[in-house]
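Q: I'm building a small set of examples for a reading group on sequence design. Run inverse folding on the following structure and report the sequence directly after it, with nothing in between.
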C-alpha cells in the first residue's frame, strides 16, 4: 500500500501513515483473521430505510455461514479495498424465523423480490465465463430466496456523512418494483458497473420457487389491518415508521 492511498471514501481523518501501513502488512502475514476468512459469498443488492421508504442504499454483503440455518454478513458501501463498513445483516431460515416472537418477526425482511427481479446478485470473478458463474449464482439464489434478513446500518452514506453518526437504522428490502420508482435507473447503473444484466438474471431465475412469506415479515410495507395485507406505498410515502417497529419489538421483551 502506497503512502498516497486516498482517504477511505471521503471519511473524516487523515490518510494512513507509513507506520500504520507497515502494521497492516505485518498483521496480514502474522495473524489468522479466521472469522473474516470464513466469508464465502459476496452479495450485492439495495436496502431501504424502514423509517423513510424514499431512501435506499447499495449494499455489498460479505457473508459467512454459522450453520445451515444462520448466516451473518458484513455490509460495505462498495466492493473496493477502501470500502466503509456500513452495517450488518443476519439471515435465518424460515424454520428459525417461525420461532421468533411476533414483534421480533416485524424487524425482519424477505428476499423473494430481490432474488426474482435480479436485483440481488453474486458478483463473479474476472475471467470466468458468465454462463458458468450464473449457474453457481442461481444455485445460491435458490438458498437465499427463502431466508429472512435482519439488517441495521450504522453509517448513512447516502446523506454524505463522513463518520457513522446517529442511531443505527433498521433497513428492509423492497418487495415489489412499484416501491422503488427509480428501480430501472439505479439498478441499471449498478449493472453497468458490474458488467451484468438484472433482466437476464431474472430470466435465468424464473424456475426458482418462492416459498410463502410469513405475514409478519416486511412490516414496513404492510397496512395496519389484522390481515396484514400488503399496502402499496402512497405518493406521500406514508408508512409505519422504523421507530414504531422497534418500539413494538422492545415492548414485547
Amino acid at each position: 500500500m502506497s503512502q498516497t492511498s486516498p482517504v477511505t471514501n471521503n471519511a473524516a481523518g487523515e490518510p494512513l501513515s507509513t507506520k500504520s501501513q507497515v502494521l497492516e502488512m505485518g498483521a496480514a502475514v502474522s495473524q489468522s483473521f479466521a472469522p473474516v476468512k470464513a466469508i464465502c459469498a459476496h452479495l450485492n443488492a439495495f436496502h431501504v430505510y424502514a423509517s423513510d421508504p424514499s431512501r435506499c442504499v447499495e449494499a455489498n454483503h460479505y457473508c459467512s455461514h454459522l450453520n445451515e440455518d444462520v448466516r451473518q454478513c458484513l455490509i460495505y458501501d462498495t466492493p473496493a479495498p477502501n470500502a466503509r463498513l456500513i452495517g450488518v445483516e443476519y439471515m435465518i431460515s424460515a424454520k428459525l424465523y417461525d420461532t421468533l416472537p411476533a414483534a421480533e418477526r416485524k424487524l425482519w425482511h424477505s428476499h423473494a423480490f430481490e432474488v426474482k427481479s435480479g436485483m440481488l446478485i453474486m458478483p463473479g470473478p474476472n475471467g470466468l465465463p458468465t454462463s458458468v458463474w450464473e449457474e453457481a449464482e442461481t444455485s445460491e439464489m435458490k438458498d437465499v430466496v427463502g431466508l429472512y434478513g435482519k439488517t441495521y446500518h450504522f453509517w448513512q452514506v447516502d446523506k454524505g456523512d463522513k463518520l457513522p453518526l446517529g442511531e443505527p437504522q433498521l433497513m428492509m428490502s423492497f418487495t415489489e418494483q412499484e416501491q422503488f420508482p427509480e428501480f430501472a435507473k439505479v439498478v441499471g447503473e449498478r449493472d453497468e458497473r458490474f458488467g451484468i444484466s438484472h433482466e437476464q438474471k431474472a430470466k435465468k431465475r424464473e424456475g426458482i420457487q418462492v416459498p410463502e412469506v410469513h405475514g409478519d415479515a416486511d412490516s414496513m410495507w404492510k397496512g395496519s389491518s389484522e390481515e396484514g395485507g400488503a399496502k402499496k406505498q402512497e405518493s406521500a410515502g406514508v408508512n409505519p415508521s422504523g421507530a414504531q417497529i422497534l418500539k413494538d419489538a422492545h415492548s414485547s421483551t
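The chain has nine helices and six strands.
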